[in-house]
Write a structure and sequence with these properties.
binds 2-phosphoglycolic acid; 43% helix; 249 residues
């Protein structure tokens, strides 16, 4: 059975002291993986606060070079140094606002794996693409190019995040999400093999909240959630963790 993941993407929110406060209020879990992704400036303080209590600290991005003249950028070595075990890559906000291509995301993934850091690779279609029935085509492209020349997926988790559901309050129905997750799992099977596709964890992201999490998390191919807005509210985030724990029993 795949271990569930509940991951909080804090995006560009919270100062260092606020991040410490929020990190302290997150529930730890023994039967699911709990991940939080603060901003770069809070990574070290949050890692120290958590102090190996089981919660995993993630970055939200990296630059695909070790070091050098890349003003304003942060390397995988630096996030590792700050206590990160994971990084979110290819988030739709990075793709849209910072023009990140599948090729760049692929470079970032390869570099991150070199440092033995896990990756949450985000994929997802926008509203136009869904309306014109291009969802599967877009997801296939994002997976094929994003994972190009990567043979081992043991450190990779996929997050399916329909762009039209992110931060909009509009959530994919459990059936809609399950159908797409199943497509992604089959795609991984065709790119790799059955064992890899059975093992890889696929998270749903996009307006997941305590009141819709259970229906989503109960789906066969949904192995957890990548949560933005609701992860900033400890009560809501902890409720989702509890639901995932209950489903995992
Ligand atoms: P949301 O964000 O939960 O606020 O929709 C999800 C994400 O962007 O990871």
């Amino acid at each position: 059975m795949r271990k569930m993941i509940i991951a909080g993407n804090w995006k560009m929110n919270k100062t260092i002291s606020e991040s410490i406060e929020l990190a302290k209020s997150i529930k730890t879990s023994s039967n699911i993986d709990v991940i939080i992704a603060p901003t770069f400036t809070s990574l070290k303080s949050v890692s120290e606060t958590i102090n190996n209590n089981g919660i995993i600290v993630s970055a939200q991005n990296i630059h695909p070079k070790d070091s050098g003249a890349y003003t304003g950028e942060i390397s995988p070595l630096m996030i590792k140094d700050a206590g990160c075990k994971t990084v979110i890559l290819g988030h739709s906000e990075r793709r849209e606002y910072f023009n990140e291509s599948n090729q760049l995301i692929n470079e970032k993934i390869k570099k991150t794996l070199n440092y033995d850091i896990n990756v949450i690779l985000c994929v997802g279609e926008n509203l136009d693409q869904r309306k014109t029935e291009k969802t599967n085509e877009i997801l296939s492209e994002q997976l094929e190019l994003g994972l190009s020349n990567i043979n081992d997926l043991s450190k990779i988790t996929i997050a399916y995040e329909p762009v039209w559901a992110i931060g909009t309050g509009e959530v994919a129905s459990p059936e809609q999400a399950q159908e797409t997750h199943s497509f992604i799992r089959n795609k991984i099977k065709s790119m790799y093999d059955e064992e890899t596709s059975n093992k890889i964890r696929i998270l749903y992201g996009g307006s997941m909240k305590p009141d819709n999490a259970e229906g989503l998390l109960n789906q066969q191919d949904i192995d957890g959630g990548l949560i933005g807005g609701a992860s900033l509210n400890p009560e809501a985030f902890n409720k989702i963790i509890s639901l995932a724990e209950k489903i995992s029993q």
